[in-house]
Amino acid sequence: MAKTEKRIESKTSRTAEYTCMTRAASFYEKTPQYKSNDNIAPKLLPKFFIPVIKIGMFRKFFTNRFPAGMYEYVISRTKFIDSVFQKAIYNEFDQILIFGAGFDSRGIRFADLNKKTTIFELDAPVTQKAKINQLKKRGVEIDSDITFISIDFNKESLEDKLIESGFFKNKMSLFILEGLTMYLDPEAIDSTFKVIDQFAGAGSEVVFDYVYSSVLRGKNLYYGEPEVLNQLKNTNEPWSFGIEKGKLESFLKDKNLKLIQNLNSEDLENMFFKDEQGNTIGRVNGTHCIVHAKKAKGLFCG
């Protein structure tokens, strides 16, 4: 049977577009808990779309079309990973690698804070080219510390591509896999984390999000789960990987990582969606968790 071509091989990733639209909409929010500081995201969208997310009632109509709690989830994920990214720059990590970078703008947004960290953005050629072209079209300066790595995973070696692009082994590095693990199969997960372990020097960290394995089985245990699964049916970017609840530390140990934080939807609500009186003003989709981990000692055993 012929292999089905994935959308990202011929078109820009819908996931990347969705995340960019969410960040752009969040930038125009007035409520502090919902507002992000991603001022670049609106510039990565077509100009005709800006009124849809800039005008309150249109923005509300647009965001209400997302699966329950996913707008809140992407906002909180963006803010949390922003904080990890900024801390890595502050602590003068040697390099940061963003897997499946999509329309990420952290290298641009935090350029003024960056003294020595080289940022690498890894993505499929079509999505990466679309992003670079749009940045140039809108007159957004791309910092010289950002290196773009275009890769065809079907034909090119990740390890070779990183070396060719100047990403060094045994340096203190931050690896970001945002909105990515659920789209990889178990073999790709193992090979990706093996490469991370091979390149990560002492003090290196990883931040990634994942879905519970039960979600892939359609158990309907979490807030917003049916809506998320229904949306996935309409794309050619299906989920294929999850982690069983309670099995995260075992997963990390196998990948030579040690847990710093594992944030579920309740944790994210407490961090980002509480008002001054302590009331929750936004519910976060319950299918996802965010992990912040650090390199452990020993050899990768995956």
Structure summarized in a few sentences:
The chain has 12 helices and 7 strands. With 302 residues, the chain is an alpha/beta fold.
What does this structure look like?
The N terminus is likely disordered. Helix 6 links the parallel strand 2 and strand 3. The chain has a single domain, classed as Vaccinia Virus protein VP39 (Rossmann fold), CATH 3.40.50.150. Helix 1 packs across helix 4 and helix 4 crosses helix 12. It has a 7-stranded mixed beta sheet, with helices on both faces. The chain has 12 helices and 7 strands. It has 302 residues and is α/β, with parallel strands linked by helices.
Q: Which overall shape is indicated by the principal axes computed on the Cα atoms?
A: globular
Compute the number of structural domains: 1
Number of beta-strand segments: 7
Query: Which sheet architecture does the biggest sheet show?
Result: 7 strands, mixed
Question: Which strand-content bin applies to the residues?
Answer: 5-15%
Helix content: 25-40%
CATH domain topology? Rossmann fold
| Mean pLDDT, all residues | 93
Q: Rg from C-alpha positions?
A: 19 Å
CATH class: Alpha Beta
Which CATH architecture would you pick?
3-Layer(aba) Sandwich
Strand arrangement, major sheet = 3-2-1-4-5-7-6
Specify the number of helices: 12
Which structural class do you get from the secondary structure elements?
alpha/beta
- The stretches of 5 or more residues where confidence is low (pLDDT under 50) are 1-5
Keywords: Methyltransferase, Transferase
Pfam families: LCM (PF04072)
Protein name: SAM-dependent methyltransferase
EC number: 2.1.1.-
